[in-house]
Design brief:
615 residues; 9-stranded mixed beta sheet; binds phosphoenolpyruvate; alpha/beta; 4 domains; 5-stranded mixed beta sheet; 24 strands; 21 helices; Glucose Oxidase, domain 1; Histidine-containing Protein, Chain: A; single chain; binds magnesium ion
Length: 615
């Protein structure tokens, strides 16, 4: 769309091709978030794939496209806010894909028990020793139905939304949003003549999911039915004991997990489903040791459920019980230990001090980092403060200040726009290779207004804090001239505004390979480096980091060699803030090379600190 059309807001149709990059595919939870976002625009938004065009505000319709990893679809936006919708949804979708982590399989560590064991698939770690109880559903019907069917549907949606809002910090909460969006789809908008019609519709939806990759969503539909019926006075609840127990269930619905949490539940054995089902995700989030075992399971007065090894023992020997108890204690201690020690400093076995910093995007993640024991902020990705609309200098200053107040050292990266990151309100020239184009510092030096405003805001915020050291870091620097020019712009602003720069230092992201060969010259200019392994790997191997099929290997020996060369060639403080910093496999290697500062996302900090203590 040209500038004129943009200025006069001419109704138009915009098509953009998007690719599913998550190995989970475009599945229910991200779809629900996408739908929730798409509803915000005054535009007709559709998705086109496999010769089908479906509404972007209907979860089941998008699900029916069965978009798997590497599939592309067209995002089509028409109407008044078409451009805005296109730009914002594009970023939103790419972020959804980036953040949609593959559900990690639990690696079972075999344990030799002397009694007969049944083997299962582990879905939530832990060890339970308790009697086996089979799930029983109790039906209770209130005499007078308290609501109409429409009211019951609306109440269920409201309840799910508030459940989602209240638990937003937990990833598992997305399940409630997903269920709410399923129930908000147009199929449930029809005027049902009676409850049976509603039930038939649910059955039909379930039938369509049978034998598809989305089969595990059947439980969500069944769950919705139960939740709606509950508001009509028909309660179907699990009958659960008041003593500690291991529950064996043929079918456990996501909403049952909350009920389990109110009882002394010790473990769960599911007899159907898989580890990616919503029930499994909620069991993991509630830390209830769980296995999937298909075969029938007899009652037992004292069973061992060892989800760490995948064993269920219905008639354990005394020795087995003793062994399981010892394992249980060691497991709980290992979990508690890392969390308990999260605020402590971190040393390797040889006594090397290692700093574990946090990568954050805003005040919320800064607070999370504080609670997780971060030793400071190693990377504030400021793009997120700019992602919806352009903040004023005052707004930016206020945001930085809130974060500066929380930590003694904060590394603020100036805007890293370009590549896969764009700003919806900022027209940028189309480039055929955006990752090799006007990105990071190149953009800031071309479009200096935003850059200058940002530097000013950082400087103004720095004036308001006493003890915080502020590191300003420029992204995508590939030669010394860029650094010299960027720093000179900052210094000029600070001189004009009489901002004392004693607390401020200047450095670069080391993420363009050319820098490796100019470290001696850079050392004379910069105060610090932070290695962006995500981009460094991308540029070392010429593999686009968001490429749907080509894989960038963050553990590659070639990258390791580059990191060795870097640390032995510089005298300046250096940290690693890319994904590599959290890689279990590379940790020992990095510490041996001499890296002493790692920056990772907040929730990984307690565990990383504990792992370092064993290297
Ligand atoms: C990196 O490139 O490794 C990095 C930390 O920055 P980003 O992922 O934001 O590009
Ligand atoms: Mg980068």
């Amino acid at each position: 769309m040209n500038l004129l059309q943009r200025l006069f807001n001419i109704n138009t149709t915009i098509n953009t091709t998007l690719t599913v990059t998550s190995s989970n595919g475009f599945h229910l939870r991200p779809i629900a978030q996408f739908v929730n976002e798409a509803k915000k625009f005054n535009a007709k938004i559709t998705l086109l794939a496999h010769k089908k065009e479906v509404s972007a505000t209907q979860v089941p319709a998008i699900l029916s496209l069965s978009l798997e990893k590497e599939d592309s679809f067209t995002l089509r936006c028409k109407g008044k806010e078409a451009q805005k919708a296109n730009d914002e949804l594009m970023i939103f979708f790419n972020n959804l894909m980036k953040n949609d982590k593959k559900i990690e399989e639990i690696t079972q560590v075999s344990t030799i028990y002397e009694s007969v064991t049944l083997k299962g698939e582990s879905i939530a770690k832990g060890i339970a020793i308790a009697p086996i109880v089979h799930a029983k559903i109790l039906e209770r019907i209130e005499e007078n139905s308290p609501a109409t069917l429409r009211e019951a549907i609306n109440q269920t949606k409201k309840e799910l939304l508030s459940h989602y809002e209240q638990n937003k910090v937990l990833e598992a909460s997305q399940i409630f949003l997903a269920q709410k969006e399923l129930l908000s789809s147009s199929v449930f908008n029809s005027n049902f003549a009676n409850v049976q019609e509603f039930k038939n519709l649910i059955q039909e939806e379930c039938h369509q999911l049978k034998n598809t990759i989305f089969e595990s969503r059947i439980a969500d539909y069944q769950d919705l039915e139960q939740q709606v019926l509950k508001h009509l006075g028909i309660h179907k609840e699990l009958e659960l004991p008041v003593f500690p127990y291991i529950l064996v269930a043929k079918e456990l619905l996501p909403s049952h997990i909350e009920q389990l949490n109110q009882t002394p539940i010790k473990g769960v054995i599911l007899q159907s489903g898989n580890s990616t089902s919503h029930t499994a995700i909620l069991l993991r989030s509630a830390a209830i040791p769980s296995l999937i075992i298909q075969e029938s399971i007899e009652l037992s007065k004292q069973a061992i459920l060892d989800a760490n090894s995948g064993d269920l023992i219905l008639v354990p020997s005394k020795n087995d019980v003793k062994k399981a108890k010892e394992k249980q204690i060691a497991f709980i201690e290992s979990l508690d230990l890392s969390f308990e020690k999260r605020f402590e400093s971190t040393q390797t076995i040889n006594g090397k001090n290692i700093k574990v910093l946090a990568n954050i995007t805003d005040l919320n993640s800064a607070k999370e980092a504080k609670g997780s024991g971060a030793d400071g902020i190693g990377l504030l990705r400021t793009e997120f403060l700019f992602s919806q609309q352009k903040p004023t200098v005052e707004e930016q200053t206020a945001s930085y200040l809130e974060i500066f107040k929380l930590f003694a050292n904060v590394t603020v990266r100036t805007l890293d726009i370009g590549g896969d990151k764009s700003l919806p309100y900022l027209p940028m020239d189309k480039e055929s290779n955006p990752f090799l184009g006007v990105r990071g510092i190149r953009f800031s030096l071309q479009e200096q207004t935003l850059f200058k405003e940002q530097l000013l805001a950082i400087g103004l915020a720095s004036r308001e804090v006493q003890n915080t050291k502020i590191k300003i870091m420029f992204p995508m620097v590939s030669n010394t001239e860029e650094f010299i020019e960027a720093k000179a712009i900052a210094l000029k602003i600070y001189e004009e505004q009489q901002i004392n720069i004693e607390k401020i230092s200047f450095g670069i992201m080391l993420e363009v390979p050319s820098v490796i060969f100019a470290l001696h010259t850079f050392d004379e200019l910069v105060d610090f480096y932070s290695i962006g392994s995500n981009d460094l790997t991308q540029y070392l191997f010429a593999i686009e980091r968001t490429h749907p099929s080509l894989k960038v290997n963050v553990n590659s020996p070639i990258l390791m060699e580059a990191l060795k060369q870097i640390i032995s060639s510089t005298q300046k403080p250096i940290s690693i803030c890319g994904e590599l910093a959290a890689e279990e496999k590379s940790l020992e290697n990095l510490l041996t090379m001499g890296y002493k500062t790692l920056s990772v996302s907040a929730k990984l900090i307690p565990e990383l600190k504990e792992r370092i203590r064993h290297v």
